[in-house]
Write a structure and sequence with these properties.
Largest sheet: none
Radius of gyration: 16 Å
Helix content: 40-55%
Number of strands: 0
Length: 96
């Protein structure tokens, strides 16, 4: 199906992600994810993920665009981690 595209795909509005919470809060969500979710579903290598998270926050601090793949994983882990912690609002997982 190479080269086949649906014309409507190019005109659909894209949802904008909310900005990442501050690093301290994301670290708490990451800890929640790795302590509560990861033992049951060990899909991520923790040291690699932590390197990606650090890369994202360094890029943000340097006013650069983070690597989109690393940023994706930070959003996903923060979102899933927020499901397992009482510190997050009910709407945070969906917003992330």
């Amino acid at each position: 199906m190479s080269g086949v595209t649906e014309p409507a795909m190019h005109t659909r509005p894209r949802a904008a992600a909310i900005p990442l919470p501050d690093r301290t809060f994301v670290t708490r969500l990451t800890t929640s994810y790795f302590e509560q979710i990861h033992p049951q579903f060990p899909f991520l290598h923790r040291p690699t993920y932590l390197e990606w998270e650090d890369r994202v926050f360094r890029s943000i601090a340097e006013d650069e665009s983070p690597d989109p793949i690393c940023l994706f994983f930070v959003y996903v882990v923060a979102s899933v981690g927020s499901l397992a912690t009482p510190i997050a609002s009910e709407s945070l997982p969906e917003a992330l």
